[in-house]
Design goal:
Elements: H1 9-22, H2 27-33, H3 58-67, H4 72-80, E1 88-94, H5 95-98, H6 101-104, E2 120-124, E3 133-136, E4 151-155, E5 165-170, E6 175-183, E7 187-191, E8 199-203, E9 207-216
Helix pairs in contact: 1-4
């Protein structure tokens, strides 16, 4: 492995976070793509319960590089960049979790701003909305637009226009990812983005919040 004696624990883990961000993945998404336990690279796994630093193994780093098609030289550059702030950490939630009231209770406030402690994290270049967060797609329900493992970056404060892809949460707890067809003072018209295109009209009074998707990994 790259000599651990030459690195700090924080530098190596920061480089792995940057590697994940470059691939458009969360830390857990990178681990999954590398064939590892999805929690292998999570922040909670970097320090033991006894407070000792836990380093990633040579094998896990090699698998992460292979999964992201990254050379060891490029990874060394990421380590060298670890002292510079080119990315920030955003809260990350699974799409399936968003639609499950038992799992997402307390994850958002009524305005759709991330709150609470049940979030994972993803490194992402700085964006001009402090409330920005990520959603990790699981399964094929949103294909062909978004595949399993795709990470969507959502900006609650971004302006929304016709044709934008959006996340909508209704007051009954349902969460949808759709294309905005039209919006008036009374209704929101949505177009589905999956394999069975359909249009749906939702009353504004039934919508808790609607937010724009500003970026998606592919």
């Amino acid at each position: 492995m790259i000599g651990e004696s030459m690195l700090t624990h924080a530098q190596l883990w920061t480089a792995l976070d940057r590697l994940a961000a470059r691939a458009g993945l969360s830390a857990s998404g990178l681990a999954k793509a590398a064939g590892l336990d999805p929690t292998s690279f999570n922040k909670s796994k970097r320090i033991t319960p006894q407070g000792r630093e836990r380093w990633p193994s040579t094998e896990s780093v090699a698998k992460a590089l292979a999964a992201s098609n990254t050379s060891i030289d490029a990874f060394v550059q990421l380590i060298g960049e670890s002292g510079h702030t080119t990315a920030e950490t955003l809260p990350l939630i699974g799409f399936a979790q968003m639609g499950n009231p038992a799992e997402n209770s307390g994850a958002f406030d009524d305005a759709g701003i991330p709150v609470g402690k049940g979030w994972d994290e993803i490194a992402f270049p700085a964006i001009d909305d402090e409330n920005t967060y990520g959603i990790e797609i699981s399964g094929n329900s949103l294909e062909p637009a978004y595949r399993d493992g795709t990470v969507l970056i959502v900006s609650p404060n971004a302006s929304i226009r016709r044709g934008d892809r959006v996340v909508v949460k209704t007051k009954d707890g349902k969460v949808m990812v759709s294309e905005l067809k039209r919006r008036t003072s009374k209704i929101i018209e949505l177009r589905s983005i999956n394999t069975e295109p359909a249009e749906r009209t939702v009353s504004q009074r039934d919508v808790l919040w609607i937010q724009r998707i500003v970026w998606a990994s592919q």
